[in-house]
């Protein structure tokens, strides 16, 4: 129910997905979210291998803006990865999936739950230590590294070896990576979260970094910065950027009067905005 709680806060940010309503049937819980059909970063990285640095800069800035906003609401995201970062039809980032968020984390607050995706776990999480919102900046560093290199920073087919790398291996960077990108990655992927970039003053530390020198943060927030890639979509029904594994799935349920009796299974889950939505019998 964490995801519902976060979504119902009425997140007002251009790079976070929004909730329209939620409902339940006798077997399933549903969120009806913004329709985003530009594909996720995982899809695009799979096909392109890596991104040019200006493109990675743009996506990183929009992700950082979204994470900073969540932190300002005392929410830590905890699961940043390419699969959770969508592109809308205009080419802007939309962060989705709030299932692992932690609410109520004030400035300087910590948490200790072991959660996240293996490739993107911060060292302090792996060690079982109390950790702060700085885990999200580690996540951003991991995704930026992947956008520039094609794989997460400490990746191995062996999970045990990968965890060992996250804890102890030095960061390996390609020679082609610019000095400013190198500096940012070293700051974000600092194993000591007390020294990590963003650990003390959060988003403001990133905004002042040379890697983002080309970014006007006010224009970025107003979606005035032109995206470096615009999805080639013929219209809202174009799903070319989604894997057929998902688009060929059946849609077995919809909101109908027959489902209203299921609302008691998870009390408080179903949500509809104040404007009434008519429901007709199928």
- Using the coordinates shown, work out and report the CATH topology of the largest domain: Transferase(Phosphotransferase), domain 1
What is the quaternary state of this protein? Answer: single chain
Helix/sheet category = mainly alpha
Rg over CA atoms, rounded to whole Å, is 20 Å
Mean pLDDT: 90
| CATH homologous superfamily designation of the largest domain | Transferase(Phosphotransferase) domain 1
When the domains are counted, the total is: 2
Query: What's the CATH class label of the largest domain?
Result: Mainly Alpha
Helix content: 25-40%
User: What is the number of helices?
Assistant: 10
Strand content: 5-15%
* Spatial order of the strands forming the largest sheet: 1-2
InterPro entries: AGC-kinase_C, Kinase-like_dom_sf, Pkinase_C, Prot_kinase_dom, Ser/Thr_kinase_AS
GO molecular function: ATP binding; protein serine/threonine kinase activity
Pfam family, one: Pkinase
Protein name: Serine/threonine-protein kinase Sgk1-like
